[in-house]
Amino acid sequence: MRVIRFYYDKFINNSYYKRDGCEWVITYKGAGMEIITISPAYRTIQKITLLLSEVYSSRFNPFYYLGAITVFLLIVDTLSGIYLFFFYDVDPMKAHASVEKISATFLGNLMRGIHRYSSDGLIFFAVLHMIHMILTDRFRMFRWVAWVSGVSTLVIFFLIGLTGYLLVWDQRAQLTGILTAKFLTEVHIFGHALMSAFLGTDLKNLGGLFRILLFGHIAVTILLIFTLWIHVMRISRPRILPPKFLMVLTTAYLIVISLVFPAKSDPPADLGSVPFSMSLDWFYLTGYPLLKYLPPSAGWLILLGFFGLLIAFPWLVKGKRNPPAEIIEEKCEGCEQCFKDCPYEAIYMKTISEKEKKAVIIEDKCAGCGICVGSCNYGASSIPTLPIAEILERINSQKPEAVVFRCPFSGEVEGIEGMLSFKVPCTGAVNAVWMRDILKNCKAVVLITCDGPDCYFREGTLWTEERFSGVRRPRLLKNLQRGKILILEAPSTENVSPEVEDFINSIGEGEDLKEGPRFISHKKVHYITASLIFSIPFLTFHPLTTHKVNFYPEGKSLVVLSFKYRSLGVKKAQKVYSKLKHMQKIENITVERSPVEVILNVDGKRVHRKVHEPRGLRRDASIYVYEEFLFEPGIRRIELIVRETAFKERVKRYSFSGNLSRGSTLAISYKEGEGFFAIKN
Question: Where in the chain is the domain with CATH 1.20.810.10?
């Protein structure tokens, strides 16, 4: 055998051939860009996925189905939620009892656990899917729609989980509601009205909120269908569900952890007391511990900054893009094979006449993978990064022992004598028809693809294997010695030189070459090991949803003002009812109310003084007040003074003298006609 070495770079027509060892990387002169190559982060991920492929095979590797697993968990979560909905009582006074009643039955307990843990799994696999997309550079350029809609879907997941936890109406729900309401008070349209629903005596307000939460929980779940449709609308044949093996494992683990670690509620909510701690679900309430240390304004800055950064991420990270493919219209026969094969729906069939259609490239959607080149029997599709005429000319002039086509994300071949290697945008761009001319001038052809479903362009590996095995058009010509062709699945971190060299040597030993092309991939599944590894994330769900977190110092006492106050009007206007003169009735209506001044004295010292304005654009609505104060436990004398600033004589007082114990809450509320009172002491 002889070694082929290249000592110069060369322009041929519109392309520039750059030597990379003994491999030729093609640069498109017109666009001034190379074929996109693998990043260090992507290579690191491939090291992990290669280990998993050794256990799961490339067919069942969970890393290749993170998005599909998320969708499957969403389906399980929705079905179990529908079951729970039939037995749930939306009345806040009965909600907790109805949840406990559901849990008292075997099926209800199982369904509640599945609903809880599938919800946690949603976040786990969705976030892992997002990280995987970032590290493998699948979020920019032609993929930006999928990325933005994916971030939106993640936000909806969090909203669904939050409303779901509130509907249980235990102490976790109450404290979550209070913390959320505090956070929302920074948006002035909410004010303190929302906070008073979670502590006080306004059951009507709380009941209305519960109905809104239940409606929102269902409506936002339906909204997911829309965002998921957007997420996949620019993708042909999206993988909606994972393989059956992974679905069976997912379902089995959800059932097991639901039975071993049943989903339990915290004690029922108490409208007269603020819970000092709760069982924190780190999947949905991740940012809530920050509210102990940061003001709401800082929380909003972090929240909007984080998700704003995620949405803008595709445009903040620069990168290369393959030039788009081109259609030579006079060669196109309208067979629609390229239209069917395109992974990103970047081709449509344009009607020329009643009997004639032509393929047209949508450049904004085109990923530059060249799969349409590999699907065309007539040479009507071309891509600058794969000038087949020049490649055939080079093979003809060099007459190598073997020709290797590999994509930038697949395994590398080094140190083999007499080998000529071409790096192409995707092995799916290599047309099976070309093998007739290539095999005239070499002994063997090797196509090194991505690791099965991990193809950077989604379907390049699949289409390559189907075309060369005769399942998909265009097929290998029948009179070829098909045994001279090897298709090898391998990530870039795997050195496949031994496999390629053994294949070349086997041809030299005169093996039967009439059989079809040879395929090498990770196909063996170690079911026991695979099942054990896949259980690891599910084992984290219980401890990460039952971790106790304190939001108030345990050694303190809490005094809370939570009330609705309707002050007197300072401006009135006449309103006429009925248009008929003999039926007209004139009434004075309040168009502006007096602000109120709230003063709190503790042990004879003033600790709080604040003026609260009426709500509404015309300042004519009731005033909602919510204030919290932490004190050392002990005997305290508390005096509350509420004064209407426009009517100095309108003053209401409340006094309390007694022991504030460690971890207790003194909640002071108000009712018209009764005045101020302690909800619970």
Answer: 40-278
